[in-house]
Amino acid sequence: MIGNIVAGATYFEETIGDFESIATVTVGVGGAADVTFTSIPSTFQHLQIRGFARTSRATFGVDALRFQLNGDPSANYSWHHMRGDGSATEAAAGANASYMESQRILGTTTGSGFGGLIIDLLDYKNTSKYTTARVLGGVDTNGTVGGIGGAVMITSGSWRNTAAVTSVKLYGDAANFAQYSHFALYGIKG
After folding, report:
1. Which of 15, 74, 125, 126 is 20 to 30 A from 56 via CA?
2. Rounded to whole angstroms, how far apart are CA atoms 69 and 73?
3. What backbone phi and psi angles, to 5 degrees, belong to 80?
4. pTM of the model as a whole
């Protein structure tokens, strides 16, 4: 919300729902096995990660995004997703998984495209309930690569742990993140 303008100055008031940049990462030459945000402050209501990314997967034009919270590889993540590619739809789920997954939202160096994604971690610091995540993303392969085409995807799920989220590890299902993949972490005021 914009405040009063006085002598050429603009004042801004912080309001509920404001986004504040916490950290950004751009993958350099040679790629990266994962991107991890650590030391996440507990001063926000929710977290959001925005990304444009691809992996070095060599068989298809798409890859899945996986993530873990607080470095936890235990089988206490559950997720379900819906995917559409313009001609078909699909729904699937994972229970007691060691990661949260959203399929077909990363591009690959084989397909030459980057996928776009938004991850919301809701009430990430609330220690009275499990952390809920939702992911929206997709990738355009301009046709098919290895028989697989692009798609749009919505995923939701939970991390069955009541700890406050202090770190998020992102990684590709089949390969490392390629150069120029970019992720930005934001805090949302509550």
Report:
1. 74
2. 8
3. -145, 155
4. 0.90
